[in-house]
Amino acid sequence: MIGALLAQRARRDGRQLSMWVVGTAAMAGLGYVGVVSSFATEQERAALLAAALANPVILLFRGLPSGAEEATFIIFLIFPWLAILASMMSLFLAVRHTRGDEEEGRGELVAATPAGRTLPVIATAAHGIIANSALALLTAAAFVAVGLDPAGSLIAGGAAAAVGVTFLGVGLLAAQLMRTSRGANALSVWIMLTTFLICGFGNAIGTPSDDLTRMESSWLTWLSPFGWGENVRAFSDNLLWPLLLCLALGGVLSATAILMASRRDLGESFVAERLGRASATPALSTSTGLAWRLARGGALGWAIGGFLVGVLATTLATVVEEIGAENPSVQEMINQIAGVGDVDQATLTTFFTMLGVLAACAGVQVICRARQEETRGTAEIVLAAPLARVRWLSGYLVVAFVVVLIVVGAAFVGAAMGIASQDSSWHLMRDALVTGSGQAVAAFVFAVTTALIFTLTPRLTIPLGWALIAFATVLGLFGPVFGLPDWLVHLSPIGVAPIVSGDEIDARGLWWLAGAVIVGALAALSLMRQRELAPAE
To answer: Is the pTM of this model over 0.85?
Structure first.
């Protein structure tokens, strides 16, 4: 029976998991190319590590320094992002095949067979372990392919996958606690982000070595699975026992989830849903108001992220300028990403490119919510009223645009507060307004593209919508560092959004981005008029 369940999951997830696994391995291989081209000598790498240890805020978003050798330096730069990709793959997989299946009715069908209620959870755990094993092997193969030590490569890939197994357990447990897949995914992602920041803070307050190329973690780092993965120190110490902590915690969380699944009724949860209002607000009398009600919780989370990006964009400019004066390679790398020469502007542009990714995620999430409403049958109830399908989808598009503007607006507030706290020049606020507005238009492109996918191939809405963001992020944010040609980088909307260079505003791809938004929105609404509701598979 478990073999049949695994086969069914493999058929459903083949394309999605392939994108996660191959994308993670590609980032590992391209990371090597970027490091070799930007930090060719050990002196340059040692200088960056010394600057990072002298300004610990940088360690919030990087790994644990373990030396200036080429391989260890690559792990310092990209391991946290490899672990994040493995974690997101795992927790989304866990929720999709447990709470998600219950919401869509598949869980009840499977529970009516000899599989019962617990075997599907066991099969999901096994499926997640297999996916993480594939990720570990392919990531290790990418490192070996670029000439790194095979043993260290395997340990590096295994460390990222071990963190993924931990969050597989987190996702399974969250699916038992929360009543909806949206709530379970939100809880899992917040736990992931919190532990990521705990690891970063723990590294930042650690003890540096005398030569400023290695950092010993503080006790705080050991409270995070990301810290366990980083303390493996691949290509340096190659420790294995921290991996056992990740696997043990993932096993305990998974076993707890299996036990909880056996103790609750199908469709119920251990955390009760909040009671609704006795009467609906006037806003819920419209389909757009309903779409906003469904999206507002996620909008708040993305807005918090946008605010933090805005703060960092302006407060770290001085730090980066100091580092760039000592190590020109750092300034060169920032300028490659940003496309401008001024350090302050380049730093702000780099962070606001990340803002474009956050805003795009927020907009795509809203459109994906329309697909979820369709598969759960609630959209059919709404459309049974005198409401045209075009108007229904347009409500989600409007809300997606509003959410994007909220996220970007929160970044503007954060940027202003950062400037005020640093007593910096307010010319950066103009740069923030121009760059942020451009990234908002880029985020609109992702929203309308996902809406177009929703009308053409509804079943691919969620996987393809998120995959486009991941692909565009690699091209637009990391492409210049990886040495990709400009024409390829400019295929990403976030990579071709307007920027400020000196005193001039460079519109870059603003007009084709705006045109894509208009044409995409009109095409999606026109096609929605012609298609019927499409249930889940």
So the answer is: no
